[in-house]
Amino acid sequence: MNLGTLVGEAGWLWLILAVGLGIAELLAPGVFLIFLAIAAAITGVATLVLADLSPVAQLVSFGVWTAVAVLIGRRWYRDYPVESADPLLNDRAARLIGDIVVVTDAIENGAGRVRVGDGTWPAHGPDVPVGAHVRITGIDSGALLIEPEAASR
């Protein structure tokens, strides 16, 4: 088998890789493999059209087209965001805003801890004794911002 045959087959291998990546994206959607699939497809077509494209040039083509596809995809998702019925689904801290929690370590000098579910979180706010009920009003650098429950009513 000569080098020309291998390069010609490489185009089909890139196209097979593109199909495989596309199927993987459908099976485990993550909105990233599709960009690799697009880059592999373009590289495959380029390899078939330009029969003397070296393996290094093919890899460079794949890298460049991957970067281009990702940049176009990022712009697309920025300009046309996917609407969600629950936009805070993956933002646990933001979902806590408005919840009433119990102080586990007194809030003194603006810092302490509160119980959220089965764990505790650092909290910042006015001085509050252990056992007091407080409302979460925001999040700052991983710490919950709180205020006494009565003050929020």
TrEMBL record:
GO terms for cellular component: plasma membrane. It is a multi-pass membrane protein. It is found in: Membrane. It comes from the Bacteria. Keywords: Membrane, Transmembrane, Transmembrane helix. Residues 94-148 form the NfeD-like C-terminal domain. Gene3D superfamilies: Nucleic acid-binding proteins. The chain crosses the membrane at residues 6-24, 31-50, 56-73. It holds the Pfam family NfeD. This is NfeD-like C-terminal domain-containing protein. It comes from Hephaestia caeni. The lineage of its organism: Bacteria, Pseudomonadati, Pseudomonadota, Alphaproteobacteria, Sphingomonadales.
